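Sanity check

After download, print the first record. It should look like this:
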Amino acid sequence: MSTAASSGSPQGETGPAPRRIRVRDWPLVAARTLAVFSWTTVMATILVLARLPAILRPGSGAVARARARRWVKRTWGRGVLRTMGVRVAAEGRPPPAGALVVSNHLGYLDIPVLDSVAPMVFVARADLRRWPFWGLMASLAGTIYVDRATKRDVLRVRNEMGDAMARGENVVVFPEATSTAGDTMLPFKPALLADAAAHGSPVYWLTLSYSTPPGGPTARDRVCWWGDMTFAPHVLGLFALRRVDCTIRFGAAPVRLGDRKAMALELRRRMLAGFEPVDGRTPRRGSAR
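Expected structure tokens:
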């Protein structure tokens, strides 16, 4: 239950200017806004209640709380997607419990999409914690925060990732370190793959893609959150869409390599091989440096 799992506001590119929402779409936008906030609040309340035993008896029932949190996140994700008219098609088999998972990143909609199919703990930029409302929701959902400006923080994050996987939770990393327009994948940053490489552990992967019905706003403009797009106008434009289709493709086999940089390159190579660009565009392969 977070918004932008790795990037906060995407950086480095100029996204399209927000389109004006048609007057006839405002009732739908208002209804969806109210429904998403209300549903999220209800699910967050359940998460708070699930944490009470730990407050009364510190250290008790960590595995049971993680199991309850996964149920809440799956229920929350499915409710949000139903409210927003998002249809998800999943291909392949989700990773087993306690796995490290790598995914491309297209925007905050990735979070309920993944939670609806295979609830995971997300690694997010530290500034997400300070977001009004959504920062609290992300924290309740078990988000692991990383300060990318401080290299020493990576060790703490890797320890928290290991603890979460030991509780049977899947941890998802967005190694592009930002969200994109979905026509390719940026080079992967390998820092959070170091422990898996050192221990010979498998790293699972998946790809995400979105599309919208022909003749209307594109998923690139209204679903993907990239460049210098600001959050509020973008989310209102997303809520105005009548339908969004999402495809999740789980990798057929995990990657095991003893070098984190080689692992990052191999993961990106495999993901690009089966990647469906947003809106069906021809993919830009880009550099695999």
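If your output differs, re-run the checksum step. Summary of this record's structure: The two ends are 32 Å apart (CA to CA).
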